[in-house]
Design goal:
It is built from four helices and no strands. With about 70 residues, it is mainly α. The chain starts with a helix and ends with a helix.
């Protein structure tokens, strides 16, 4: 399978300056999993801008926006 980086960039919510993995989803997910974190696309826009990609932050963010 060929990477569709240009297509992925159209919807990539990552705001981290200089991210080398932006648009290369498989590398991004691998990178964050190795760090015990989640990629930007799992978070709301506001939570993503905090750069806190922890599971705990994901749960707080999800609960805030899902009404749980």
């Amino acid at each position: 399978m060929q990477c569709q980086k240009e297509k992925n960039l159209q919807s990539c919510p990552c705001t981290y300056p200089g991210c080398e993995k932006k648009g290369i989803c498989c590398e991004c997910v691998k990178h964050h999993r190795e760090k015990g974190a989640l990629p930007a696309c799992y978070f709301s826009e506001g939570a993503e801008k905090t750069y806190d990609r922890s599971t705990e932050n994901f749960i707080r963010d999800w609960e805030k926006y899902s009404g749980k």
